[in-house]
TrEMBL record:
Keywords: ATP-binding, NAD, Nucleotide-binding, Nucleotidyltransferase, Pyridine nucleotide biosynthesis, Transferase
Pfam families, alphabetized: CTP_transf_like
Entry annotated with the keyword NAD: yes
EC number: 2.7.7.18
Domain annotation Cytidyltransferase-like: ranges: 8-168
SUPFAM superfamilies given in the database record: Nucleotidylyl transferase
CDD domains per UniProt: NMNAT
Superkingdom assignment: Bacteria
Organism: Saccharomonospora azurea NA-128
Similarity remark: Belongs to the NadD family.
The protein's name: Probable nicotinate-nucleotide adenylyltransferase
Ion transport recorded as keyword: no
Lineage, broadest ranks: Bacteria, Bacillati, Actinomycetota, Actinomycetes, Pseudonocardiales
Length: 198
């Protein structure tokens, strides 16, 4: 079998929303990816200043959100490894699982801006090609990033963040149509985000 082109969409997904799904779908189409693997983080070390929802809740919401798309899947590598999540470990694990395939790591403009602060950043660009996508409120650029290892792509602007979704739920405001219906129902069923957000 020839090498497949696998997108990797890493995120805290607390909760997953339509901004994530639109970005992944448009990148999948633009780059002719065979599959996009969503990878919910274990503990995101750069979000240590706030309480993050249980990994199993974030994982299940991501499964619900992606289930209807045949080229989307969800991996537990970061959750099952445990501890703090570093993308270098994510990509090492996926490379071991899919040794013949090509990996494309998808990040929003805000995450790409921080990438030089990530662990073992030099190795990251050997493990995968990086795809930075536009996000309202952030500048997308590849200054100081290795040439030929990063592509920048404009995607449909979705001014949605997990933070505003959590805040809306906490205030009792609707989140319908900001994320798939099943995720809205899961949040309600599990009573997520009902405490004031820090
Ligand atoms: N609306 C969006 N448009 C494009 N990319 C996005 C959007 N929201 C998130 N992303 C990207 O998806 C990835 C995972 O994001 P994450 O799970 O942290 O969501 P978030 O909305 O940024 O969360 P929070 O508000 O809690 O920081 C990151 O690379 C991020 O840049
Ligand atoms: O490897 C790192 O040091 C690192 C630091 C911050 C974020 N990341 C990854 O970037 C992705 C988006 O992270 P976040 O915090 O914006 O949800 C997710 O897969 C994280 O594991 C990775």
């Amino acid at each position: 079998m020839s090498a497949r082109r696998l997108g990797v969409m890493g995120g805290t997904f607390d909760p997953v929303h339509n901004g994530h799904l639109v970005a992944a779908s448009e990148v999948q189409h633009r780059f002719g990816l065979d599959e996009v693997i969503f990878v919910p983080t274990g503990q995101p070390w750069q979000k240590a200043n706030r309480a993050v929802s249980r990994a199993e809740d974030r994982y299940l919401m991501t499964v619900i959100a992606t289930a209807s798309n045949p080229v989307f899947s969800v991996s537990r590598v970061d959750i099952d490894r445990g501890g703090q999540t570093y993308t270098v470990d994510t990509l090492r694990d996926l490379r071991a699982e899919y040794p013949d395939d090509e990996l494309f790591f998808i990040t929003g403009a805000d995450a790409l801006e921080q990438i030089l602060t990530w662990r073992d950043v030099d190795e990251l660009f050997d493990l995968a090609h990086f795809i930075g996508v536009t996000r309202p409120g952030y500048q997308l650029h590849d200054h100081h990033l290795p040439q030929g290892r990063v592509s920048l792509v404009e995607v449909t602007a979705m001014a949605i963040s997990s933070t505003t979704c959590r805040e809306r739920v906490q205030r009792g405001e609707p989140v319908w149509y900001l994320m798939p219906d099943g995720v809205v129902r899961y949040i309600d069923k599990r009573k997520l985000y009902t405490q004031p957000q820090s």
